[in-house]
Amino acid sequence: MAIDPKKTLDAYKAKRREFRILEVPAMQYLMIDGAGDPNTAPAYSDAVTALFSLAYTLKFESRKTLGVDTVVMPLEGLWHAPDMESFTSRRDKSAWLWTLMILVPDHVTPEMFAEAVAAVEQKAAKKKQETPALRSVRLETLDEGLCAQTLHVGSYDDEAPVLDDLHHRFIPDNGLRMTGLHHEIYLSDVRRVEPVKLRTILRQPVERVR
Questions:
Q1: Can you give the pLDDT at residue 95?
Q2: To the nearest 10°, the Cα dihedral for 183, 184, 187, 188?
Q3: CA 109 to each of CA 13, 70, 112, 190: distance values in angstroms, whole numbers, following the listed order
Q4: DSSP 8-class letter at 197
Q5: Maximum Cα–Cα distance across the chain
Q6: Most buried residue, 44, 45, 80, 132, by most Cβ within 10 Å?
Q7: Which residues share a beta bridge with 186?
Q8: Minimal CA–CA distance to 112: which of 49, 67, 48, 62?
Q9: Cβ atoms of residues 160 and 177 within 8 Å
Q10: In this structure, are residues 135 and 115 in contact, taking their beta carbons and an 8 Å threshold?
């Protein structure tokens, strides 16, 4: 069976209505940056396509050449904006800046990544398909360290009260302050799960107030 890091990594465990503090280790991701409303910006859908194309190519190549089979991890996103209230009290999606990501195993090297990009391009060319975002994807390590997180169940548009509670109650009440970018992990496939049942980990890097 394929290795599933979601079942072994503490960073991918969260419960609804439970906020907790944890140490998130440095991990390696496929990453791509963009901006705008994820529901309407073409760059967002292009980025998702590029990430999953590369993730599956790396999965199959790792299984073939290394004998290591790992599940393709869910889509994740780092989100920020000039005014962070656009995520909570004022949901102005047009102002959002994002970095979309997919976790990949540590055995994926820069050389393997470059070969995967070339393989996806070659496959797309044979099918006469465009890959506008492919060359914008990078392989990078993210080290978030101390974080606060919880599980949200429901529509993405219903996250605001949970984020407000996380940002303005739980974090300061525990002697913490926000440091890095708001992080979301999309455990559900939005194409197959109705909005009220979507499961999303909401994470916020923090530091202790001295």
A1: 79
A2: -170
A3: 27, 15, 5, 30
A4: G
A5: 58
A6: 44
A7: 200
A8: 62
A9: no
A10: no
